[in-house]
Design a protein that fits this description.
Blueprint: H1 2-31, E1 34-43, E2 46-53, E3 56-62, H2 64-70, E4 71-83, E5 87-106, E6 112-134, E7 137-158, E8 167-170, E9 173-188, E10 193-203, E11 207-222, E12 225-239, E13 244-260
Antiparallel strand pairs: 1-4, 1-13, 2-3, 2-13, 4-5, 5-6, 6-7, 7-8, 7-9, 9-10, 10-11, 11-12, 12-13
Length: 261
């Protein structure tokens, strides 16, 4: 009987050590002064406004259907960290690459023109914030930047032998940084639901005005994840006076899933 007891003890020691290590790991995460989250999301984008590439003016009218028909690549990701529920920061990056072409440009002399366009746009938002807790909710006072990175590649060339030959291209690459201040209010509705509103305003050397507004709800699935349901809109009026101008509103419904650790 004593031999059996010793044998069982020897067999259970590794499992006991494993459970103890897991418990210690979870306890260290729970006791860490840092609270982190990573969120993947998708937004049904609508982009409206005006754009100018060198001497070419164009109206911008892009809806979710157009994006789904012409998208080559896309990614939307957000990281947020807060220390002792007081000081924090977040990084939010969205990227999309669109391409399209048409053969339907018929000139008065019956020459046929083919036009091709490729658009790559990346937007990185980085902000630090200070958190204050009130009776009605939590307010994060924020300051940071929004970096725009736009590449537009256009090509126009003849596709038949009627009329003069045309072969033109334009490939400007423009990026700039806007400086922002803003705030975010979060209010808990019950154990699982919370609502929030976040906004900012800013400008830069070539940006006369930029602003963003996001309103939504978060639903908590469990202790380590939730879903984000919101509507987000971003305005920008940029003109470098030379090669590129971009005066648009980007808006749409957003759905995201976040994990906390």
């Amino acid at each position: 009987m004593q031999v059996k007891t010793k044998l069982m003890t020897a067999l259970l020691i590794p499992y006991s050590c494993t459970f103890s290590a897991k418990a210690a790991e979870l306890d260290s995460v729970a006791n860490s002064p840092w609270r982190n989250s990573i969120e993947i999301y998708a937004q049904a984008l609508n982009i409206r406004g005006d754009s100018k590439v060198k001497n070419l003016d164009a109206n911008v009218d892009i809806d979710p259907e157009f994006i789904m028909d012409h998208i080559d690549m896309g990614a939307m990701l957000r990281w947020e960290s807060i220390y002792e529920n007081r000081w924090g920061f977040y990084l939010d990056y969205s990227y999309m690459k669109l391409s399209g072409e048409t053969d339907s440009l018929l000139q008065p002399d019956l020459s046929k023109i083919r036009a091709e366009m490729e658009l790559r746009q990346g937007v990185l938002e980085a902000k630090g914030f200070k958190r204050f807790t009130y009776d009605f909710g939590i307010i994060d006072y924020m300051a940071g930047i929004r970096w725009w990175d736009n590449d537009v590649d256009t090509k126009i060339h003849s596709t038949n032998n009627i009329g003069p030959s045309i072969n033109k291209g334009n490939s400007p690459s423009v990026d700039w940084v806007d400086y922002l201040v803003g705030a975010r209010l979060t209010t808990k509705l019950n154990e699982d639901w919370s609502t929030y509103i976040s906004g900012d305003v800013g400008l830069s050397k070539d940006t006369s005005f930029t602003s963003a507004l996001q309103v939504g709800f978060r639903y908590r699935f469990n202790s380590w994840s939730d879903i984000n349901l919101s509507y987000k809109s971003t305005w920008v009026d940029y003109d470098n006076g030379d090669t590129f101008a971009y005066n648009t509103v980007t808006q749409g419904f957003l759905v995201g899933w976040a994990a906390y650790f």
